[in-house]
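Reviewer comment 2.1 asked that we show a complete input and output for one of the modelled complexes. We chose the thymidine-5'-diphosphate case, as it is the one discussed in the main text.
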Amino acid sequence: MFYEKKSCRICGNKGLIPYLDMGNTPLANSLIVRSSEINNEKYFPLVVVYCPTCSLSQLSIVVEPSILYNHYIYHSSISKTFHEHCKQLAEYISSIILKGKIGFCVDIASNDGCLLTKFKNLSHKVLGIEPAKNLAKLSISTGIDTYNDFWNKKTAEKILQSYSHADIITSTNVFAHVDNLHEFLEGINILLSEDGAFIIEVPYMSELIKKNEFDTIYHEHLSYFLIKTLKILFEKHNLKILDIQKLPIHGGTIRVITVKYSNNNLSINKKGIDKFLNEEDNNGMYDIHTYKNLDIYAKKIKSEIFSLITNIKRQNKRISCYGASAKGITLLNYCKINYRMIDYIIDDTPQKQNCFAPGSHIPICSLKKLLESPPDYLLILAWNFAEEIMSKTKFYQNNGGKYIIPIPEVRLYEYSSK
Ligand code: TYD
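Response of the prediction step:
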């Protein structure tokens, strides 16, 4: 079901240093569908290690991808913020990289086709590669051509036989999920045209550290990237970084634009890339002590949330959560918060409703529940969408409902407008 990863997946170094142990936890997206499944839940170690050679942080184990992704519950299209993000990405690629030309755009792990829909709206030819059967089926039903498989060399060869080289390959929030990144990039080299661009978006380790986002560490996220690390990886695979952009989405993301070495059509933003590298160095991102501090901050947040919730419960007040996000489920489990303390979790994803959160066993409900049975406090587990969630729950705050936001530090929001 899982195997230990004893060497760095980028540079092969075996001298990895553990720095954060979040205990044994269930898989954050493996929601419990029937209460009878509760006793059969599987727990996996959640430990992060650091490679002093290339500064990659990675999990000490790899859970078999077939367990994680065969039926995937995360739907990109639920968030308005993400829709807007995809629209901007498609427009940016269309105008700056494709320079108005109509291209063949391939999205790896295309989920429900949210990004490809935006490319299609701009008249590009699109193809999704999606390993989860349920999501591939869903995106095909909305008119997005989708190939149901994992991305690797074999998939790249098959696509090339049936289609053509890709002008654009995107992979947003996928790279961190991949164990064999070398094979992944070999596949990119097969499908990407000589003058094409490969664009990734990944959570940025510098931001994770800066904002204590330890709850984004869970079994699906095998790697935690810095620019230094990505540069080493890409250079091993005939890819050069053209530009890097920092984006607020998902708590702090970097968009990295790469092309093949032989492609000189677009200019390299060397100054911008060097700035990232210098900042990483100056912020201690190449020093194990920085990472050991994350353990201290995580424990601090854990104790603060736990005592806040215990105090609220002592006053006989009620607490619910918003967003059955993987990070939220991780936070609850790490902080040892369960169904005895929290009444329910609201999530707008229909597939998550009527399930139970892994580990904490809190029931997941639709927004209707917040209207019918409002709590005194709402813990926003999807803190990366806090603004969007607060604005869609105005009715709750107008009736005196309070919010708790756990990351980067525990904060309480009260509105006096009754
Ligand atoms: P997200 O933070 O995108 O990802 P992860 O699971 O990787 O931590 O998850 C956000 C969750 O919050 C997702 O389950 C959808 C839910 N959500 C709503 O239910 N309503 C909303 O308005 C928003 C913005 C999110």
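The longest strand covers residues 192-203. We note this here for comparison with the apo prediction described in Section 3.2.
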